[in-house]
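REQUEST ID: PR-0412
SUBMITTED BY: lab tech R.K.
PRIORITY: routine
TASK: structure prediction, single protein chain
INPUT:
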Amino acid sequence: MQGRFARQHIHCEEVLMKNKMMMIGSLCLVLALGLVFAGCKDEFTMAEFDSTSSPKVTVTSGSGVGNEKAFLVTWDAVGDTSSYTVVFQPTGKKTIVTISSNTYNDRTYAADGTVTYPGVATRNVDKWNAYVTIDKDNYDIGTGKIGVMARSIRNDKNASIGWSETVTLK
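STATUS: complete
OUTPUT:
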């Protein structure tokens, strides 16, 4: 009888020892993983894209016909830009509206909308312009800003907008 109990006692001690070893091993694994994640926490940062440079925008008021108010918008090219869009933001509003994607560096406009096509020898491809009209009746506010949005040719840069001084529609 005593041998049977001794064998059972030894077997129980072996099982308890295995359980203790599994528990200690699990705790070490949890501790090691915790240290790995805590150590890596500062290594991962969110990707923040730079913006393209904002164009410096100049706006000259033209006349327009009927409800439309005309503006000559000019700006210099900015680096790594693939396209420009002229936009409008009414004073005090969050919405930005596209007025024109028709931007040019192969022609020039006068404030009255008269277009001139300079010869290739005198053309400056870094001088951009657009002649835009804004329907005054589309906005309850009579003022706003005209901007030029520059889109980068690189995927890791956000578009940026260069703004004019406040313009009057009405």
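NOTES: The first strand starts at residue 50 and ends at 51.
REVIEWED BY: pending
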